[in-house]
């Protein structure tokens, strides 16, 4: 499930070949480290309830939910801000999409491309 979400979110919300590669690699590395560390919080001495491990896993899941909500809020805020700026520029939607595609083909990152929109 996590790998599927990574494959969908990373390419659609990052622009620029180098940035996309680095973000994808960092996401994969974080996923691997999380799996290695996560298994270490469950100790044999805590059997059969594994209370410290359960608390640690629940805490991490809660933090993940909070971070995902903050991440989505940031993307929504960026999309609204970019929409306001695009509307103020007076360009049509079609012209904005064309300029966004052209900047994407020139390998402009999502932060520098004012016509880039994050997917939800």
Automatic annotation (TrEMBL):
Record has Transport as a keyword: yes
Keyword Transmembrane assigned: yes
Membrane topology designation: Multi-pass membrane protein
Residue ranges, compositional bias (Basic and acidic residues): 92-107
Subcellular compartments: Membrane
Principal localisation: membrane
Entry protein name: Nucleolar GTP-binding protein 1
Organism, as annotated: Paecilomyces lecythidis
Gene label: NOG1_2
